[in-house]
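With this grant's support, the team has encoded backbone shapes as discrete tokens. A representative record is reproduced below.
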Amino acid sequence: MDLSYQVVDVFTRTALEGNPLAVFTDAQALDAPTMQRIARELNLAETAFLLPSTREGCAVRVRIFTPAKEMIFAGHPTIGSAYVARESGFVDRDAMEFVLDELVGPVPIRIESNTDPLLWLRTPPISKGNRFESAQCARAVGLQPEDLLPGIPCEVWTAGNPILFVAVRDEATVDRAEPDTAALRALYAGEAEPLCTFVFAPVAAGAYSRMFAPELGVVEDPATGSATGPLAAYMIEYGLAPTTAGGARFISEQGVKIGRRSELHIRLIGERGKDGIEVGGYVAPITRATMTLPGRQ
């Protein structure tokens, strides 16, 4: 069985930066265990599979896998899959709005300009979770308690994937972070599912960020769209969001430390994002390829 797929770099205009994503454009013959094995084989942060949607109002169904598990929602696979769906004819090339069907539910997509399109996803509902002791969080990412921003709690926020946010003093401190997998596992022992750890510093343009998810098979993620809506909500909650131009649009810069610079655009809908948060990015196409599997899966 021959399976066509594309690799795109997401949250960048520049090839070989951003976050790479494989998108299989005809996955109807695949079951979930085979999708998981393919994701493990390619060993990217995520691999996406496009299927027909049976959900009313949705254009395409998207299933998303890390090398270790299926995700109910993820940002760069959503943006990358939306791009591939338009380029491959699954969605009308001139469509400026459509909806993807993901395990988290319908995810609205908006296209800003048909030339060099900036693609936006509407972040699913955001909620706040547990708060963790700051000194323990600092140690789990190889930092000292004094490296963290004073008075800002280490908290879990989620839009489908729970993220622990650790706010630090500056960009150099973000780059010094070195996660301790055993310490993170101990920190999260009481949680219902593994957490991603997001270390960031507020900067004039928005945030300078890194994200670690060793329990999901992702040592460090170059760009984490599913964390970016919650990041914006967290920054607003604790007065860390930029206020220039009303603070309605800003950027999370991620992946610099590992040579995969990514720009994740943030747009607040309504005052302080009360009517929603969009996360946007550009996409750079890289590869068209075919995977051959023995027999019918």
Notes: Residues 75-87 form the longest helix (13 residues). Residues 58 and 284 are 25 Å apart (CA to CA). Helices lie at 32-42, 75-87, 134-140, 171-176, 181-187, 225-237.
